[in-house]
Write a structure and sequence with these properties.
This protein is of the alpha+beta class. The chain has a single domain, classed as 2-Layer Sandwich (Alpha-D-Glucose-1,6-Bisphosphate, Chain A, domain 4). It has four helices and seven strands. A seven-stranded antiparallel sheet has the order 1-7-6-5-4-3-2. α1 packs across α4. The radius of gyration is 14 Å and the shape is globular. This is SRPBCC family protein. InterPro entries: Polyketide_cyclase/dehydratase (IPR019587), START-like_dom_sf (IPR023393).
């Protein structure tokens, strides 16, 4: 298993951050691992919604089938995914408003037989990508 997390304080309201985070047409502008949505983002943003995402991590392309686990507008967006080689993923974005700023925390987990072979390298690469993504997200809404 490889667990990853990143946190960034963004100089924007939670509503502004949430609007950007859930605008799936703009993910390529801020999400460092995202390369595309073959069929678009989720049709509805609610628990149980499914969508496909093309990603690149550690230089390797992957298609992930995501299911929305939780969606609390302005607060939490959590997903569970299945990737190649039996890799399972979870991602959870949590927004904490603090006046006109928002702390965004992302927690992720990678599990599966292939992960155990490269857990340390995957953790480092995914953490760097999360930190870069949050900086870019902040730049779009600030």
């Amino acid at each position: 298993m490889a667990e990853v997390s990143a946190q960034e304080r963004i100089e924007a309201s939670a509503e502004k951050v949430w609007a950007q985070l859930t605008d799936f047409t703009s993910w390529g502008r801020w999400n460092a691992t995202h390369t595309g949505f073959p069929e678009g983002g989720p049709a509805t943003l609610e628990a149980g919604a499914v969508y496909q995402e093309n990603m690149k991590l550690m230089g390797f392309p992957a298609e992930v089938a995501w299911t929305v686990e939780a969606c609390e507008p302005g607060r939490v967006f959590a997903t569970r995914g299945k990737g190649p080689m039996g890799v399972n993923l979870t991602m959870r974005y949590a927004l904490t408003p603090e006046g006109e700023t928002t702390t965004v925390r992302v927690d992720g987990e990678f599990t599966g037989p292939a992960v155990s072979l490269m857990a340390g390298k995957l953790r480092d690469s995914a953490t760097a990508a999360l930190n870069e993504s949050l900086r870019k997200l902040g730049g779009l809404v600030a």
